[in-house]
Amino acid sequence: MMNYTVIGAGFGGLTALEALRKLDPDAHLTLIAPKPEFVYFPSLIWVPTRLRKADDLVLPLDHFLDGLRVDFQQAAASGLKDGGRTVITDKGEFANDGLIIASGGRFIRKLPGIENAIVPCSGAKEAQQIHDRLHEMIAAGGGTIAMGFGGNPVEPSGVRGGPMFEFLFGIDTYLRKQGVRDSFRLVFFSPAPKPGIRMGEKAVDRLMAEMKTRGIETHLGHKRKGFEPAKVKTEGGEFDADMILFMPGLTGPAWVQEAGLPLSPGGMVQADMTCRVQGWDKTYVVGDSGSYAGGPDWMPKQAHMADLQARAAAKNLIAECEGRPANETFRVELICIVDTMDSGTMVYRDLKRNVLFPRSVLGHWSKRLFERHYLSEFK
Ligand SMILES: Cc1cc2nc3c(=O)[nH]c(=O)nc-3n(C[C@H](O)[C@H](O)[C@H](O)COP(=O)(O)OP(=O)(O)OC[C@H]3O[C@@H](n4cnc5c(N)ncnc54)[C@H](O)[C@@H]3O)c2cc1C
Question: Which of the following CATH numbers is that of domain 3-105+252-321: 3.30.70.141, 3.30.930.10, 3.50.50.60, 3.40.50.300?
């Protein structure tokens, strides 16, 4: 009986486990992750504006893991040996016949004074922090909120901009509903003259027009210098802010550097379009941890991509272990709904098309329906 091991209990890891179980009902499946829980990141955007509670988006995995007969090892991977056949963790070593790495990405926290900003996509705790600060500001009579995001200069896919637009528009909508928008100044800052360009030119124009309509100020095209308590500093000037939300660029997890894995220039595990780690046998990477040579430069780091990669990786891992050709590649597509709390704009991009749908209430409700569908698996 084969022992397949997955590192990480996020979108990529859990989809990989499902796919492995479907393809090999008899295999021994092991999951290594720090906690037996799954964080549903896409709905964190609704925590500050009270559409969701942070705790409701952290789901226990017991039911899911029992159903798939997964041997859960509560541990954090810290290295690999024997060419990937042994995972080293803080709780000991675990042998495997094949490995899928899905331990997510890591934010580059190098900007001076970054501790003065909330990094909203780190998790449920940070989303709750934004909620608390926002409501303190409302109680205190308003103020300035600055929001921005950065990239990884040597890894085009190492950027997470979509959720920042959603926090921005969601907070704007919420403040309007509370009747206090006039007491707030919202400023969006980015070193890119066209932030979010990976969604396509038309999408960026739409987002910028939306900011103008909503009275959101922009500070674009200036390299960031850092943050101070209540201040954003760029080469194009500085401005005060009572709350700063900043999403830095993404790099690979810290532990992969110790593991001797091949890394892309941006610090992610280097794979190809079959998700196989370059030069390593029976070792695959999926989701935000990886860099996939051969894909377009707009390839997103998204849950949806992690799912597509996980299915391809599971198929290839089993094929490789059974001595069959392992040449399944994953489909590259960007599906992004930029939510505003009461409506949403959907952007679709693949190798042939780049379509921007009109903003509508349907966009918002599709995001909610997708959430319900995804989360039902854990109940
Ligand atoms: C606010 C927000 C909104 C988003 N909205 C969307 C959206 O609308 N649509 C979309 O498609 N994507 C969205 N994304 C992006 C999406 O959530 C990520 O791309 C996705 O989570 C990546 O999946 P992953 O499996 O690679 O990593 P993750 O989901 O980050 O999971 C990583 C897992 O690895 C574990 N881990 C970490 N270190 C170790 C270690 N050393 N050993 C073992 N385990 C470890 C973690 O605990 C976690 O379980 C959003 C992200 C955020 C933050």
Answer: 3.50.50.60
